Amino acid sequence: MTSLNAPGNPPPPPRGADSAARPPRRLYRDPHGPIGGVASGFAEYFEVDPVIARLLWVVALLSGIGLPAYVLCWLIVPKAPSWPPPGYLGRSSGGTAQPATWVSGIVIIALAAMIGSGIDGFGDYLVPMALVGFGIYLLNQRPTAAPAGAESGEPIEPGATPAGGASAAAPPRTETRRLVTPTVLSLLGIAAGVLVALGAAGVAQVSVATAAAIGLAIVGAGLVASLWLGRAPGLVPVGLGLVALLLSASTLERWVGAARSMGDKMHFEMNGIESTGIGERRYVVTSIDDLERRYELGLGEVDLDLSALDFTGQERSLDVEVGLGKAKVIVPRDVAVEVRGEVGAGKADVLGREIEGVDTRIEQDDAGAGAGKLRLELEVGLGEVQVVRAR
Amino acid sequence: MDELDKELDEMAAAVSEPPAGAPRRLPPPRRDPMALGFGVAFLGLGLLGLLRGAGVDVPAAWLYAAVLVGLGAAGLVGTRLRQA
User: What ipTM describes this predicted complex?
Assistant: First the structure.
Protein backbone atom coordinates (compact mmCIF):
# COMPACT_ATOMS: atom_id res chain seq x y z
CA MET A 1 0.00 0.00 0.00
CA THR A 2 1.21 3.47 -0.86
CA SER A 3 0.49 6.47 1.22
CA LEU A 4 1.65 10.03 1.27
CA ASN A 5 3.52 11.35 4.29
CA ALA A 6 3.95 7.91 5.66
CA PRO A 7 6.37 7.75 8.58
CA GLY A 8 8.83 5.63 6.60
CA ASN A 9 9.17 8.05 3.67
CA PRO A 10 11.80 10.80 3.80
CA PRO A 11 10.57 14.38 3.75
CA PRO A 12 10.94 16.26 0.45
CA PRO A 13 14.38 17.77 0.07
CA PRO A 14 14.85 21.48 0.62
CA ARG A 15 15.49 23.48 -2.54
CA GLY A 16 19.11 23.45 -3.48
CA ALA A 17 19.91 20.53 -1.26
CA ASP A 18 21.05 18.37 -4.17
CA SER A 19 23.65 20.83 -5.36
CA ALA A 20 24.84 21.39 -1.80
CA ALA A 21 25.23 17.67 -1.15
CA ARG A 22 27.40 17.06 -4.20
CA PRO A 23 30.92 18.50 -4.20
CA PRO A 24 31.71 20.75 -7.17
CA ARG A 25 33.11 18.81 -10.10
CA ARG A 26 36.44 19.83 -11.57
CA LEU A 27 38.28 18.70 -14.63
CA TYR A 28 40.92 16.13 -13.71
CA ARG A 29 43.25 13.79 -15.54
CA ASP A 30 42.68 10.09 -14.99
CA PRO A 31 45.69 8.70 -13.10
CA HIS A 32 45.07 5.32 -14.73
CA GLY A 33 44.90 6.71 -18.29
CA PRO A 34 47.06 5.00 -20.90
CA ILE A 35 48.97 8.20 -21.79
CA GLY A 36 48.21 11.29 -19.77
CA GLY A 37 44.63 10.53 -18.75
CA VAL A 38 43.43 13.68 -20.52
CA ALA A 39 40.84 12.00 -22.76
CA SER A 40 39.48 9.93 -19.92
CA GLY A 41 39.25 13.05 -17.77
CA PHE A 42 37.32 14.90 -20.45
CA ALA A 43 35.00 11.91 -20.87
CA GLU A 44 34.21 11.89 -17.18
CA TYR A 45 33.73 15.65 -17.06
CA PHE A 46 31.35 15.76 -20.02
CA GLU A 47 29.80 12.43 -19.08
CA VAL A 48 30.31 10.77 -22.44
CA ASP A 49 31.80 7.42 -23.29
CA PRO A 50 35.62 7.50 -22.91
CA VAL A 51 36.04 5.75 -26.26
CA ILE A 52 34.31 8.69 -27.92
CA ALA A 53 36.56 11.17 -26.11
CA ARG A 54 39.69 9.26 -27.16
CA LEU A 55 38.60 9.05 -30.78
CA LEU A 56 37.82 12.75 -30.84
CA TRP A 57 41.34 13.40 -29.59
CA VAL A 58 42.62 11.25 -32.45
CA VAL A 59 40.61 13.37 -34.89
CA ALA A 60 42.06 16.51 -33.33
CA LEU A 61 45.52 14.97 -33.62
CA LEU A 62 45.04 14.37 -37.34
CA SER A 63 43.76 17.88 -37.91
CA GLY A 64 46.94 19.31 -36.42
CA ILE A 65 45.73 20.92 -33.20
CA GLY A 66 45.46 17.76 -31.15
CA LEU A 67 49.08 17.33 -30.09
CA PRO A 68 49.70 20.84 -28.71
CA ALA A 69 46.23 20.85 -27.13
CA TYR A 70 46.86 17.48 -25.48
CA VAL A 71 50.27 18.52 -24.15
CA LEU A 72 48.77 21.77 -22.86
CA CYS A 73 45.97 19.92 -21.08
CA TRP A 74 48.50 17.43 -19.71
CA LEU A 75 50.42 20.34 -18.20
CA ILE A 76 47.58 22.44 -16.81
CA VAL A 77 44.91 19.90 -15.84
CA PRO A 78 45.70 18.37 -12.44
CA LYS A 79 45.84 14.63 -11.94
CA ALA A 80 42.97 13.31 -9.82
CA PRO A 81 44.00 12.22 -6.33
CA SER A 82 41.63 9.27 -6.66
CA TRP A 83 39.47 7.89 -9.45
CA PRO A 84 36.66 8.62 -9.87
CA PRO A 85 37.05 12.05 -8.25
CA PRO A 86 34.39 13.35 -5.88
CA GLY A 87 31.14 14.16 -7.63
CA TYR A 88 31.90 11.96 -10.66
CA LEU A 89 30.00 8.91 -11.74
CA GLY A 90 33.04 6.77 -12.51
CA ARG A 91 31.72 5.95 -15.95
CA SER A 92 35.04 5.15 -17.61
CA SER A 93 36.57 2.95 -14.97
CA GLY A 94 36.18 -0.71 -15.61
CA GLY A 95 33.50 -0.27 -18.25
CA THR A 96 33.41 -2.20 -21.50
CA ALA A 97 32.75 -0.41 -24.72
CA GLN A 98 29.29 -0.98 -26.18
CA PRO A 99 28.86 -1.87 -29.86
CA ALA A 100 27.27 1.53 -30.50
CA THR A 101 30.41 3.14 -29.18
CA TRP A 102 32.55 1.33 -31.73
CA VAL A 103 30.12 2.13 -34.54
CA SER A 104 30.35 5.76 -33.56
CA GLY A 105 34.12 5.42 -33.41
CA ILE A 106 34.21 4.16 -36.98
CA VAL A 107 32.15 7.16 -38.03
CA ILE A 108 34.59 9.48 -36.30
CA ILE A 109 37.59 7.78 -37.91
CA ALA A 110 35.91 8.23 -41.29
CA LEU A 111 35.45 11.87 -40.40
CA ALA A 112 39.13 12.09 -39.55
CA ALA A 113 40.06 10.53 -42.87
CA MET A 114 37.97 13.14 -44.66
CA ILE A 115 39.66 15.91 -42.72
CA GLY A 116 42.97 14.52 -43.91
CA SER A 117 41.96 14.26 -47.55
CA GLY A 118 39.82 17.36 -47.81
CA ILE A 119 36.07 17.55 -47.59
CA ASP A 120 35.22 18.49 -51.13
CA GLY A 121 32.89 16.42 -53.25
CA PHE A 122 31.73 13.29 -51.49
CA GLY A 123 32.87 14.65 -48.16
CA ASP A 124 30.38 17.48 -48.45
CA TYR A 125 27.67 14.99 -47.62
CA LEU A 126 29.60 12.59 -45.41
CA VAL A 127 30.57 15.26 -42.91
CA PRO A 128 26.99 16.29 -42.07
CA MET A 129 25.97 12.65 -41.99
CA ALA A 130 28.75 11.91 -39.55
CA LEU A 131 27.81 14.87 -37.38
CA VAL A 132 24.14 13.97 -37.33
CA GLY A 133 24.97 10.32 -36.65
CA PHE A 134 27.21 11.30 -33.79
CA GLY A 135 24.48 13.49 -32.35
CA ILE A 136 21.91 10.71 -32.59
CA TYR A 137 24.34 8.31 -30.98
CA LEU A 138 24.82 10.69 -28.06
CA LEU A 139 21.07 11.09 -27.75
CA ASN A 140 20.87 7.32 -27.30
CA GLN A 141 23.36 7.45 -24.49
CA ARG A 142 20.55 7.49 -21.94
CA PRO A 143 21.59 6.36 -18.53
CA THR A 144 20.56 2.90 -17.56
CA ALA A 145 18.06 2.64 -14.78
CA ALA A 146 20.67 1.81 -12.23
CA PRO A 147 19.80 2.63 -8.67
CA ALA A 148 21.12 5.97 -7.56
CA GLY A 149 24.46 5.64 -5.92
CA ALA A 150 24.86 2.02 -6.89
CA GLU A 151 27.48 2.98 -9.44
CA SER A 152 30.96 3.62 -8.06
CA GLY A 153 29.66 4.28 -4.60
CA GLU A 154 28.06 7.58 -5.44
CA PRO A 155 26.05 8.93 -2.52
CA ILE A 156 22.31 8.79 -2.91
CA GLU A 157 20.99 12.25 -3.38
CA PRO A 158 18.29 13.70 -1.16
CA GLY A 159 14.91 12.96 -2.58
CA ALA A 160 16.11 9.92 -4.51
CA THR A 161 14.99 6.54 -3.37
CA PRO A 162 16.60 3.17 -3.88
CA ALA A 163 15.30 0.94 -6.62
CA GLY A 164 12.08 -0.65 -5.57
CA GLY A 165 11.38 2.15 -3.12
CA ALA A 166 7.87 3.15 -2.35
CA SER A 167 7.89 6.79 -3.40
CA ALA A 168 6.89 7.53 -6.97
CA ALA A 169 6.54 11.28 -6.54
CA ALA A 170 10.16 12.42 -7.04
CA PRO A 171 12.32 10.70 -9.66
CA PRO A 172 15.95 10.39 -8.67
CA ARG A 173 17.97 13.37 -9.74
CA THR A 174 20.85 11.11 -10.67
CA GLU A 175 18.97 9.62 -13.58
CA THR A 176 18.27 12.94 -15.25
CA ARG A 177 21.49 14.63 -14.22
CA ARG A 178 23.49 12.65 -16.74
CA LEU A 179 21.09 13.46 -19.52
CA VAL A 180 21.42 17.21 -20.04
CA THR A 181 25.02 17.50 -21.21
CA PRO A 182 24.89 14.59 -23.70
CA THR A 183 21.54 15.84 -24.99
CA VAL A 184 22.86 19.35 -25.61
CA LEU A 185 26.07 18.01 -27.18
CA SER A 186 24.02 15.77 -29.45
CA LEU A 187 21.78 18.67 -30.45
CA LEU A 188 24.92 20.67 -31.25
CA GLY A 189 26.15 17.83 -33.45
CA ILE A 190 22.84 17.52 -35.24
CA ALA A 191 22.57 21.28 -35.75
CA ALA A 192 26.12 21.40 -37.14
CA GLY A 193 25.34 18.50 -39.46
CA VAL A 194 22.16 20.11 -40.73
CA LEU A 195 23.92 23.44 -41.34
CA VAL A 196 26.76 21.75 -43.25
CA ALA A 197 24.23 19.75 -45.27
CA LEU A 198 22.30 22.91 -46.14
CA GLY A 199 25.52 24.49 -47.32
CA ALA A 200 26.55 21.41 -49.32
CA ALA A 201 23.14 21.24 -50.99
CA GLY A 202 23.31 24.93 -51.86
CA VAL A 203 20.13 25.70 -49.94
CA ALA A 204 21.70 28.14 -47.49
CA GLN A 205 25.23 29.16 -46.66
CA VAL A 206 25.41 29.76 -42.94
CA SER A 207 28.45 31.63 -41.73
CA VAL A 208 30.63 30.30 -38.92
CA ALA A 209 29.55 33.18 -36.70
CA THR A 210 25.87 32.38 -37.23
CA ALA A 211 26.52 28.69 -36.58
CA ALA A 212 28.32 29.60 -33.36
CA ALA A 213 25.36 31.80 -32.38
CA ILE A 214 22.96 28.91 -32.96
CA GLY A 215 25.15 26.64 -30.84
CA LEU A 216 25.35 29.28 -28.14
CA ALA A 217 21.57 29.58 -28.01
CA ILE A 218 21.30 25.77 -27.70
CA VAL A 219 23.85 25.66 -24.88
CA GLY A 220 22.16 28.58 -23.11
CA ALA A 221 18.77 26.90 -23.35
CA GLY A 222 20.33 23.68 -22.08
CA LEU A 223 21.82 25.44 -19.07
CA VAL A 224 18.49 27.05 -18.21
CA ALA A 225 16.73 23.71 -18.66
CA SER A 226 19.31 22.11 -16.37
CA LEU A 227 17.71 24.02 -13.49
CA TRP A 228 14.84 21.53 -13.77
CA LEU A 229 16.47 18.55 -15.43
CA GLY A 230 19.70 18.17 -13.49
CA ARG A 231 23.20 19.58 -13.27
CA ALA A 232 25.21 20.22 -16.42
CA PRO A 233 28.32 22.17 -15.40
CA GLY A 234 30.22 20.88 -18.42
CA LEU A 235 28.12 23.13 -20.65
CA VAL A 236 29.66 26.34 -19.28
CA PRO A 237 33.12 25.74 -20.87
CA VAL A 238 31.38 24.60 -24.07
CA GLY A 239 29.46 27.89 -24.16
CA LEU A 240 32.61 29.91 -23.44
CA GLY A 241 34.31 28.17 -26.37
CA LEU A 242 31.38 29.07 -28.62
CA VAL A 243 31.57 32.69 -27.45
CA ALA A 244 35.26 32.74 -28.46
CA LEU A 245 34.32 31.21 -31.82
CA LEU A 246 31.54 33.75 -32.32
CA LEU A 247 33.86 36.69 -31.63
CA SER A 248 36.77 35.44 -33.73
CA ALA A 249 34.51 34.45 -36.62
CA SER A 250 32.74 37.81 -36.54
CA THR A 251 36.08 39.57 -36.80
CA LEU A 252 37.59 37.28 -39.42
CA GLU A 253 34.50 37.26 -41.59
CA ARG A 254 34.68 41.01 -41.91
CA TRP A 255 38.29 40.81 -43.10
CA VAL A 256 37.59 37.93 -45.42
CA GLY A 257 34.56 39.77 -46.81
CA ALA A 258 36.69 42.81 -47.60
CA ALA A 259 39.38 40.67 -49.22
CA ARG A 260 36.78 38.72 -51.18
CA SER A 261 35.17 41.87 -52.55
CA MET A 262 38.61 42.98 -53.66
CA GLY A 263 39.12 39.60 -55.29
CA ASP A 264 35.77 39.78 -57.06
CA LYS A 265 36.65 43.20 -58.37
CA MET A 266 39.92 41.88 -59.71
CA HIS A 267 38.16 38.99 -61.33
CA PHE A 268 36.07 41.29 -63.47
CA GLU A 269 38.95 43.60 -64.27
CA MET A 270 41.04 40.64 -65.36
CA ASN A 271 38.40 39.29 -67.68
CA GLY A 272 39.82 36.45 -69.73
CA ILE A 273 42.86 35.97 -67.53
CA GLU A 274 43.16 33.00 -65.20
CA SER A 275 42.17 33.83 -61.63
CA THR A 276 42.48 31.37 -58.76
CA GLY A 277 40.76 33.44 -56.13
CA ILE A 278 42.07 34.86 -52.94
CA GLY A 279 45.41 33.64 -51.78
CA GLU A 280 47.17 32.76 -55.01
CA ARG A 281 46.83 34.29 -58.45
CA ARG A 282 48.76 33.23 -61.48
CA TYR A 283 48.48 35.25 -64.65
CA VAL A 284 50.01 34.02 -67.87
CA VAL A 285 49.66 36.90 -70.34
CA THR A 286 50.09 35.77 -73.93
CA SER A 287 49.04 38.90 -75.81
CA ILE A 288 50.19 42.46 -75.27
CA ASP A 289 46.56 43.56 -75.60
CA ASP A 290 45.61 41.50 -72.56
CA LEU A 291 48.19 43.22 -70.39
CA GLU A 292 46.47 45.22 -67.68
CA ARG A 293 47.80 48.43 -66.22
CA ARG A 294 47.49 47.25 -62.64
CA TYR A 295 47.52 43.94 -60.72
CA GLU A 296 46.77 43.94 -57.01
CA LEU A 297 46.07 41.52 -54.19
CA GLY A 298 45.44 42.06 -50.50
CA LEU A 299 46.78 38.79 -49.17
CA GLY A 300 48.60 36.02 -50.97
CA GLU A 301 50.81 35.59 -53.99
CA VAL A 302 50.68 37.15 -57.43
CA ASP A 303 52.62 35.31 -60.12
CA LEU A 304 52.68 37.34 -63.33
CA ASP A 305 54.24 35.58 -66.32
CA LEU A 306 55.02 37.96 -69.20
CA SER A 307 57.64 35.76 -70.83
CA ALA A 308 55.57 35.14 -73.95
CA LEU A 309 55.03 38.85 -74.74
CA ASP A 310 56.78 40.69 -77.52
CA PHE A 311 57.44 44.30 -76.51
CA THR A 312 59.23 45.24 -79.72
CA GLY A 313 58.41 48.86 -80.48
CA GLN A 314 56.31 49.10 -77.32
CA GLU A 315 56.77 51.00 -74.08
CA ARG A 316 54.43 49.85 -71.37
CA SER A 317 53.99 50.55 -67.66
CA LEU A 318 52.72 48.08 -65.12
CA ASP A 319 51.83 48.34 -61.42
CA VAL A 320 51.80 45.29 -59.12
CA GLU A 321 50.64 45.67 -55.51
CA VAL A 322 50.45 43.03 -52.80
CA GLY A 323 49.52 43.90 -49.23
CA LEU A 324 50.85 40.79 -47.55
CA GLY A 325 52.59 38.08 -49.51
CA LYS A 326 54.66 37.79 -52.63
CA ALA A 327 54.75 39.44 -56.04
CA LYS A 328 56.66 37.61 -58.76
CA VAL A 329 57.05 38.94 -62.30
CA ILE A 330 58.71 37.03 -65.14
CA VAL A 331 59.78 39.44 -67.88
CA PRO A 332 60.80 38.53 -71.45
CA ARG A 333 64.47 37.94 -72.14
CA ASP A 334 65.03 40.85 -74.48
CA VAL A 335 62.92 43.72 -73.13
CA ALA A 336 64.49 46.69 -71.37
CA VAL A 337 63.21 46.80 -67.81
CA GLU A 338 62.95 49.71 -65.41
CA VAL A 339 61.91 48.57 -61.95
CA ARG A 340 60.81 50.92 -59.18
CA GLY A 341 59.03 50.11 -55.98
CA GLU A 342 59.09 49.51 -52.27
CA VAL A 343 58.88 46.64 -49.79
CA GLY A 344 57.58 47.68 -46.36
CA ALA A 345 59.20 44.75 -44.63
CA GLY A 346 60.74 41.75 -46.34
CA LYS A 347 63.04 41.14 -49.25
CA ALA A 348 63.36 41.91 -52.91
CA ASP A 349 65.11 39.88 -55.59
CA VAL A 350 65.11 42.06 -58.70
CA LEU A 351 66.96 40.76 -61.74
CA GLY A 352 69.57 39.05 -59.60
CA ARG A 353 70.02 41.84 -57.06
CA GLU A 354 68.80 40.96 -53.58
CA ILE A 355 67.81 43.49 -50.93
CA GLU A 356 66.33 42.74 -47.52
CA GLY A 357 65.07 44.90 -44.66
CA VAL A 358 62.44 47.44 -43.69
CA ASP A 359 61.19 50.15 -46.04
CA THR A 360 63.35 48.82 -48.82
CA ARG A 361 63.35 50.99 -51.90
CA ILE A 362 63.77 49.26 -55.26
CA GLU A 363 65.51 50.94 -58.17
CA GLN A 364 66.87 48.64 -60.80
CA ASP A 365 67.33 49.08 -64.56
CA ASP A 366 68.32 46.49 -67.08
CA ALA A 367 68.70 47.41 -70.76
CA GLY A 368 68.28 43.85 -72.05
CA ALA A 369 68.48 43.53 -75.82
CA GLY A 370 66.48 46.69 -76.25
CA ALA A 371 63.37 45.15 -77.77
CA GLY A 372 60.85 47.54 -76.27
CA LYS A 373 60.61 48.82 -72.71
CA LEU A 374 58.68 47.78 -69.62
CA ARG A 375 58.33 49.99 -66.57
CA LEU A 376 57.45 48.03 -63.44
CA GLU A 377 56.16 49.69 -60.27
CA LEU A 378 56.11 47.12 -57.46
CA GLU A 379 54.65 47.63 -53.97
CA VAL A 380 54.57 44.97 -51.25
CA GLY A 381 53.62 45.83 -47.68
CA LEU A 382 55.02 42.75 -46.00
CA GLY A 383 56.61 39.94 -47.93
CA GLU A 384 58.69 39.46 -51.03
CA VAL A 385 59.21 40.90 -54.49
CA GLN A 386 60.84 38.88 -57.23
CA VAL A 387 61.56 39.94 -60.80
CA VAL A 388 63.30 37.45 -63.07
CA ARG A 389 63.98 37.14 -66.75
CA ALA A 390 62.51 34.29 -68.76
CA ARG A 391 64.98 31.57 -69.66
CA MET B 1 -11.15 -7.31 3.84
CA ASP B 2 -10.18 -7.79 0.21
CA GLU B 3 -12.61 -5.09 -0.83
CA LEU B 4 -11.09 -2.72 1.72
CA ASP B 5 -7.57 -3.38 0.41
CA LYS B 6 -8.74 -2.88 -3.16
CA GLU B 7 -10.40 0.40 -2.26
CA LEU B 8 -7.29 1.62 -0.45
CA ASP B 9 -5.09 0.72 -3.45
CA GLU B 10 -7.38 2.63 -5.80
CA MET B 11 -7.29 5.65 -3.52
CA ALA B 12 -3.50 5.52 -3.31
CA ALA B 13 -3.17 5.21 -7.08
CA ALA B 14 -5.51 8.16 -7.55
CA VAL B 15 -3.38 10.27 -5.21
CA SER B 16 0.07 9.26 -6.49
CA GLU B 17 -0.59 9.35 -10.24
CA PRO B 18 -1.77 12.39 -12.14
CA PRO B 19 -5.11 11.96 -13.86
CA ALA B 20 -5.00 11.04 -17.51
CA GLY B 21 -4.60 14.08 -19.72
CA ALA B 22 -3.33 16.29 -16.92
CA PRO B 23 0.04 17.96 -17.60
CA ARG B 24 2.98 16.57 -15.64
CA ARG B 25 4.31 19.07 -13.17
CA LEU B 26 7.98 19.89 -13.34
CA PRO B 27 10.03 19.53 -10.20
CA PRO B 28 10.96 22.82 -8.57
CA PRO B 29 14.04 24.39 -10.17
CA ARG B 30 17.38 23.83 -8.51
CA ARG B 31 19.18 26.76 -6.99
CA ASP B 32 22.10 26.91 -9.43
CA PRO B 33 23.06 30.54 -10.02
CA MET B 34 25.97 29.62 -12.29
CA ALA B 35 23.73 27.69 -14.68
CA LEU B 36 21.09 30.43 -14.55
CA GLY B 37 23.54 33.30 -15.14
CA PHE B 38 25.54 31.67 -17.91
CA GLY B 39 22.44 30.11 -19.46
CA VAL B 40 20.70 33.45 -19.81
CA ALA B 41 23.93 35.12 -20.98
CA PHE B 42 24.57 32.46 -23.63
CA LEU B 43 20.97 32.64 -24.78
CA GLY B 44 21.17 36.43 -25.13
CA LEU B 45 24.50 36.37 -26.95
CA GLY B 46 23.29 33.59 -29.23
CA LEU B 47 20.20 35.57 -30.14
CA LEU B 48 22.36 38.65 -30.77
CA GLY B 49 24.60 36.61 -33.06
CA LEU B 50 21.55 35.26 -34.88
CA LEU B 51 20.29 38.81 -35.39
CA ARG B 52 23.64 39.71 -36.95
CA GLY B 53 23.45 36.64 -39.15
CA ALA B 54 19.95 37.68 -40.24
CA GLY B 55 21.31 40.98 -41.48
CA VAL B 56 20.58 43.29 -38.57
CA ASP B 57 23.36 45.86 -38.39
CA VAL B 58 25.07 45.12 -35.08
CA PRO B 59 28.66 46.39 -35.19
CA ALA B 60 31.34 44.00 -33.97
CA ALA B 61 32.31 46.47 -31.24
CA TRP B 62 28.81 46.21 -29.77
CA LEU B 63 29.07 42.44 -29.91
CA TYR B 64 32.32 42.54 -27.94
CA ALA B 65 30.70 44.87 -25.42
CA ALA B 66 27.66 42.61 -25.07
CA VAL B 67 29.91 39.58 -24.54
CA LEU B 68 31.93 41.31 -21.84
CA VAL B 69 28.87 42.68 -20.05
CA GLY B 70 26.95 39.42 -20.42
CA LEU B 71 29.72 37.19 -19.10
CA GLY B 72 30.54 39.66 -16.33
CA ALA B 73 26.90 39.79 -15.27
CA ALA B 74 26.72 35.98 -15.40
CA GLY B 75 29.73 35.74 -13.14
CA LEU B 76 28.25 38.28 -10.73
CA VAL B 77 24.93 36.44 -10.63
CA GLY B 78 26.78 33.20 -10.04
CA THR B 79 28.82 34.47 -7.12
CA ARG B 80 26.31 36.84 -5.48
CA LEU B 81 23.42 34.39 -5.49
CA ARG B 82 25.70 31.66 -4.23
CA GLN B 83 26.63 33.83 -1.26
CA ALA B 84 23.00 34.77 -0.57
Answer: 0.70
